């Protein structure tokens, strides 16, 4: 069966969306969240500002969609090879690479900093980006519990936060280097913390 | 022996310092770090701005001194009753109370958010406030290791970050409530993670 053709207008829209996301992520990394404007995003993307307002009510909404469009890596959940520690090490090492990449880092940092001071933006940021992240780790730990590798009474949500909280803190506040050695150590400690006794 | 009298000029200076710190903490909580100015601090404190410039080179320096003046709680280290879990629970419950207090929360949040986007400010913030915090926890874990309660090969610095990172993330990004139940669970998991096997 032939793949249905995408209508030209849909492809144009998709191209504009991508251009708007790229422009928003570039600009927020350059000027910070406070100085980011819809007009600036429109100019950088080469579209009219009405095009942006037709799809999004605010710069925050554009940015959150831009991140969500990029962040689909683990929509289906974390890998499950049956080896909890190996799977967590693999995924966190990939996150080390991602968060050490300046192209990713600048816009994410700008958004995280703005969220720290803005409860409404923060709620969206958490719901759209951070909660799904905590959830896939919690789910992977639950699968390990169902396989008998994790104690029945371990708090898996807090265990997931023990992987992601120290990682976020090192990255956001620069309290230490983000390295494979660090994330491997985190995984080792968390796996011991939740292990069956 | 009589206590030596403090000269009047020293007492006046100490009163001015305290007034400047209070003004800086109040103002940054109200207007945010970006809009905080030395002039604003001086006006709120009822001193001339030259008085501030004589002692501090920048608003960041005033704020960091203001926090450090308040943050002396555990300069001598965490309590050590011989019961690691009980001591950690006690101290983290006190931190829950402190970080849920709006008077403390607003200025600390403003400074943390500014630091996320400003590498130089962040370095000072980490060196003056966060590192000493991580260090007292690492030291308490080391004392427990010396008492034979913690595995010889456990990474104590990362274990300390596993107590403080999830706490900071819940607080700064509002990913969950800061409660005694949460910190007690954190302590329980970390103590298991580092326990002798």
Layout: helices, strands, pairs:
2 copies of one chain form a homodimer.
Chain A: H1 8-31, H2 38-45, H3 49-55, H4 59-70, H5 84-99, H6 102-117, H7 119-146, H8 156-173, H9 180-194
Helix pairs in contact in A: 1-2, 1-4, 1-6, 2-3, 4-7, 5-9, 6-7, 7-8, 8-9
The helix-and-strand class of chain A reads mainly alpha
Runs of chain A with pLDDT <50, length 5+?
none
Q: Helix count of chain A?
A: 9
Task: Tell me the radius of gyration of chain A.
Answer: 19 Å
Span of the ends, CA to CA of chain A? 55 Å
- The SSE order of chain A reads HHHHHHHHH
Give a quick summary of the entry:
2 copies of one chain form a homodimer. Chain A has helices spanning 8-31, 38-45, 49-55, 59-70, 84-99, 102-117, 119-146, 156-173, 180-194.
Descriptive notes:
2 copies of one chain form a homodimer. Chain A is mainly α and 197 residues long. Chain A folds into 2 domains: 10-68, Homeodomain-like (Arc Repressor Mutant, subunit A, Orthogonal Bundle), CATH 1.10.10; 72-194, Tetracycline Repressor, domain 2 (Orthogonal Bundle), CATH 1.10.357. Helix content of chain A is 73%, strand content 0%. Chain A has 9 helices and no strands. Chain A is elongated, with a radius of gyration of 19 Å. The mean pLDDT of chain A is 88. Chain A binds chain B through residues 32, 34, 109-110, 112-117, 119, 122-123, 125-126, 130-131, 134, 154-155, 158-159, 161-162, 164-170, 172-176, 182, 185-186, 189-190, 192-195, and chain B through 32, 34, 109-110, 112-117, 119, 122-123, 125-126, 130-131, 134, 154-155, 158-159, 161-162, 164-170, 172-176, 182, 185-186, 189-190, 192-195.
């Amino acid at each position: 069966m032939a793949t249905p053709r995408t209508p030209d207008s849909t492809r144009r829209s998709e191209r504009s969306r991508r251009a708007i996301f790229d422009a928003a992520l570039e600009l927020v990394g350059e000027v910070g969240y406070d100085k980011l404007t819809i007009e600036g995003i429109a100019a950088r993307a080469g579209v009219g500002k009405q095009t942006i307002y037709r799809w999004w009510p605010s710069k925050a909404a554009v940015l959150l969609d831009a991140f969500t469009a990029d962040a689909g890596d683990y929509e289906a959940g974390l890998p499950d090879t049956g080896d909890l520690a190996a799977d967590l090490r693999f995924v966190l090492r990939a996150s080390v690479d991602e968060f050490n990449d300046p192209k990713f880092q600048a816009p994410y940092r700008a958004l995280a900093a703005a969220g720290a001071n803005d409860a409404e933006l923060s709620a969206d940021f958490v719901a759209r980006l951070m909660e799904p992240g905590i959830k896939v780790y919690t789910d992977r730990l639950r699968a390990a519990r169902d396989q008998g590798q994790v104690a029945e009474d371990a708090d898996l949500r807090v265990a997931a936060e023990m992987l992601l909280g120290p990682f976020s803190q090192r990255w956001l506040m620069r309290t230490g280097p983000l390295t494979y050695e660090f994330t491997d150590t985190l995984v080792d400690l968390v796996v011991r913390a939740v292990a069956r006794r």
